[in-house]
Fold this protein.
Amino acid sequence: MTYCLGIDTGGTYTDAVIMDAKAKTVLESKKSLTTYPSPIGGISSVLDALSPDLLKLVSSVSVSTTLSTNTVLENTGDAAALILVGDEVLLKNTDLSLESINHPIQNYIIVRGGHDENGDEATPLDTKAVRDFVFSMKEKVSAFAVSSYFSVRNPAHELLIKELITDLTRDIETGHSHPVVCGHELAQSLGAYERGVTAYLNAMLLPVTRRFAESVLSEMKRRNLSADIKILKCNGAVSGILEAMEKPVESIFSGPTASLLGASFLSGRDTCLMIDVGGTSTDISMMEGGFADISESGATVGGWKTKVQAVRMETSALGGDSQIWLHSPSISDLNSEKIRIGPRRVIPLCRAAAQFPEMLSLLQDRRYFNKLHMTEYIQPVRFFIRSGAEVSLTSEEQFVYDRIQNTPTSLHDIFWGMKYLPSDALSRLVSKKAVNMIGFTPTDVLHVLGEYGEFCTEASMIGAGILASFLDMSPVEFCRHLKQIITQKMALEIVYFLAEKGMSDLFCSKSLFNHSTSGVLSLELYSSTADSKKFIRSFLSFPKPYVKFKINVPIVMIGGPVKAFVSELHELLDAEILTPDFFEVGNAVGSLVGKVSKRIEVTVRTVHIDSKYDLRTQGILVHYPGGRRAFDLRDAAVEFAKSTGKALIEEYMRRENIPLDKVELKMKEENVFISKGTVPVQTTFIFEGFAKNLL
């Protein structure tokens, strides 16, 4: 009997399940609050809650985590430096690109060098510029990233720079050098800048991921668990923990990917749409024929466009912990824009009151509140609490921070005796994560409606009553309206996600446009994203039951409170909506479902024999990860490409301790022709090796 342990560290909760791998059944599941800034505390707590007798029988562990995603979004990784190598085009355009992202790269240089499309050296590498930059940066950063023009056709310049950095940063006493991440090691597709961004993020994530991985290993050792540990990647595959420490950027969106895999496994549906309502966000993704729908263009996270292949998903800032706040509440109509939801995450009133019972008296001691002063940070039911993080503060920030305690502090106590409302200082303290906000959330809404009751319902009721009074509504009426808004937002994201794939229809159950019969309306009338969303939103707001969207695939809902939204979603969507057993911990189950897999591309290209560069080509070039080779005959080149791709897959599986007889190898061939009936000028062989992980 093989027992396996799945762990998912989400934005709010850390979930764990123990499963019988042979029977494919969940034996036990637990949840614990995620801890910050290090998630290992939450992992330790959830493991403490599991049965020790079951835990000691575990032989395999798989982890999914939001660590990489949050580190990139919050720009809290360790300092890294980027070296870009390219021709005049790259030199001319990249500087603007670097400044256009949310957190511009501060430590970078662009040097001359790079190769052409055949892999021949286009410009000699400026090694002096590289040396000078490394010397200026080695005391400021903990890692380097390198990306060279056409390095996927010839990585020679990247490898030379890696060797230079290793030599120039080697510590005499320890012999250790700064880590160096090369773009060709992470991506095989063209795009030197995007490969550079991917390598830079990977370099930035190396130290924080290593600390996390070592903490997990230490925690398992402390519990005497000699288990094989895997990390779920954002493409649905898993890797060993050592590879995860080397390529942490591949675990971006690991959490939502786990939810998708868990949704498919728990529902028994190879094709389904998954909606995961978490604490911080709502994520939507899709499984087709047993495989996750992958975005071939590369994942975008925090404004960074990368070459990381990830599950295609739609993410909205709508979670159980999304703050609900009032904007211009003097207007008492039901226009949803007067009631704002998100995007910032706060601690729900009910959860804060469960931890700090004195919150109830703070809520009941309501002071006069000027509705004209309401902002995202100044609200009738808003409290602040220190986070424990050590950050640098300005004098104004420090003055406000000193008024906030390690227990919930009301706005009245913060502002007492002050001649102005320091809203800007509070926003900066929150952005710097020096303090956390406490407020009314969708979790509180469900507590008021009696559909979720894990924490302190009384706090939610008081908070709802205060906010509803500004809109001349009762607390229950206010919360029902909020739930309707949240459900419509979910439905909008579901329909739009499927509309992009041509998998949803608008089914009119009564006459709408002077038609006498029901029918289907096409969404293809609108080409732009904005128009499509406006079109879909307009129909979701039609009075019931005039219109419904027909969804052609099952919808599987994952996350603690999702059952509360099923009936409302049915009113908007004609769909099969499932909440399978253990949907509350579907992401932890999903962390166990991933396969050990590897994807390799090898390209055979016909080139001109009269190459003007030093390396004379022989008519046929084969480009493979880490190198290239020239051939006179195409048949010989094709044979080499096939054998090389297979060998690289097998080498990877051996490193992951997977027996080769357990590996399924697939090869796909893509050809490019100049004219019909001719020999291909380019053939790309795509090799994929799969091995079942745990389930």
About this structure: Residues 594-692 form one domain. The chain has a mean pLDDT of 82.
